[in-house]
Specification:
126 residues, mainly beta, four-stranded antiparallel beta sheet, globular
């Protein structure tokens, strides 16, 4: 069983940056692939970024490629999402998720993930 707690959300102006964190506990963090998803008001949850167990393989949604960076520190049981050049359309609740399956390409599919955090809200003003 893995517990995930996100933090780092907030209100930021367009063009700004935030670093989201997701702290994991309850299991061997380095054995889990990690993903970030987001859900905007009135929209379905969508994939943002994912990382393999070691962090050597990463996968991004086209909408954030070149602006967001997923990284992890297995010694701190934490995965990060650095968000840069934020746009109003990035406004959403951001969730981290963990999977105990190792995919060649870190999964973009929500059903691949076994554990979810409660989310952290990001609001980007224009």
């Amino acid at each position: 069983q893995v517990q995930l707690v996100e933090s780092g959300g907030g209100l930021v102006q367009a063009g700004g940056s935030l670093r989201l964190s997701c702290a994991a506990s309850g299991a061997t963090f380095s054995s889990y692939g990690m993903g970030w998803f987001r859900q905007a008001p009135g929209k379905e949850r969508e994939f943002v970024a994912a990382s393999s167990w070691s962090g050597s393989r990463r996968h991004y949604a086209d909408s954030v490629k070149g602006r967001f960076l997923i990284s992890r520190d297995n010694a701190k049981n934490t995965v990060y999402l650095q968000t840069n050049s934020l746009k109003p359309e990035d406004t959403a609740v951001y969730y981290c998720a963990a999977t105990n399956s190792d995919y060649v390409v870190p999964s973009r599919w929500a059903y691949s993930y076994d554990y979810w955090g409660q989310g952290t809200r990001v609001t980007v003003s224009s």
